[in-house]
Specification:
This protein is α+β, with helices and mostly antiparallel strands. Helices cover about 25% and strands about 25% of the residues. The longest helix is centred in the middle third of the chain and has 20 residues. The chain binds zinc ion (2 copies).
């Protein structure tokens, strides 16, 4: 039987370290922890083939939300709760000229206890900013 499930890798466009076919929350969480401790980041993607199995999709979806919930509130290093956004970086590139705008390009999560840092890029799911917010295109 072919395995379906979530794909985890270092970055969206980095295929050097990739784990496929994650179908349960425990494996997902373990893999995520591994990635976040090695690279301090991870990229989760749904294996499109799992679309053909709605039941499984639901289970994975649930696991993912649970996981994200956990990751957002507990430090991946020392498991101290309250791991949250403490800073943000600006410089989301303009859609037209690529100039870094004043829009948020990443959120910084940090732990108050062990000062572990995690950067979450493109928190709003946006990779480029509209030129209307660009100082070059629209001063
Ligand atoms: Zn910590
Ligand atoms: Zn621009």
């Amino acid at each position: 039987m072919p395995t379906h499930g979530l794909i985890l890798r270092k970055e969206k466009d980095d295929f050097s370290d990739i784990v496929k076919g994650i179908t349960n929350a425990e494996v997902l969480y373990k893999t995520f922890k591994l990635f976040s401790s090695s690279y301090s980041k991870a990229f989760i993607e749904t294996d499109m083939r799992a679309m053909y199995n709605p039941m499984r999709m639901k289970v994975i979806e649930k696991a993912t939300f649970k996981l994200l919930d956990k990751i957002n509130t507990v430090c991946p290093e020392c498991s101290t709760p309250g791991f949250g956004i403490t800073d943000s970086k600006k410089g989301l590139p303009c859609n037209v000229c690529n100039f870094p705008t004043r829009s948020v390009s990443s959120h910084i999560f940090s732990c108050k206890k062990c000062s572990y840092l995690k950067e979450e890029k493109y928190p709003n799911g946006k990779f480029f900013e509209d030129p209307m917010h660009c100082d070059v295109c629209n001063p």
